[in-house]
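Q: Here's a chain of 198 amino acids. Please give me its 3D structure as tokens.
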Amino acid sequence: MITTTKSHLAPPIAILPDLMSRPEGINFSVAVAVKGFGKLKIRPIQLDDEEEMIAFHQRLSKESIYLRYFEFLGLDERTSHDRLIRICKNTVESYAIVMESAATPHRPESILAVGRISTTDKPYVATFDTLIVTEKNELHLAKVLIKQLVKLAQAFGFQTLTTELLVADHDTLNLCRGLGFSSHSLLEDGLVRVTQEL
């Protein structure tokens, strides 16, 4: 099961860099080929994604939800209008992207993964999280999505990208290590912090 969790670092108070800036040298909407899924699009999240996000959350397993949020959140809570309005909007502190399949004559566009980078109280340090649909090839989605988050963090001017994962989240830990992240166990919390210097 591939998912990453929300960070337990302190709430952001130092807004540096500004995630609403538009740095040069980065494509905010890109087409990617993902094994098992074909050609997909990665783009910034937007307010009119609410209906797609509801359908996306309906495709998540209980395990994915627990590994992402460290608790079981019901569908109604995860897809409430107030919450979706908040998370479907990028701000100076938080920037999210979605990975979606293309529309066909018989099927609308469908969000398959969501990734986010967020500022912290430490200048030039960002956290990230991802949430991936529960499918047999989800590891391939996670790999491409995390690579794109690393590129975004670099483009925005961050020097460090990090997150905290449950020790039991073996797939994500191994994936992050394979992508160049170092790991440090936080035994008192049952967590592992993964970090990459950009």
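Q: Can you summarize the key feature?
A: The first helix runs from residue 50 to 58.
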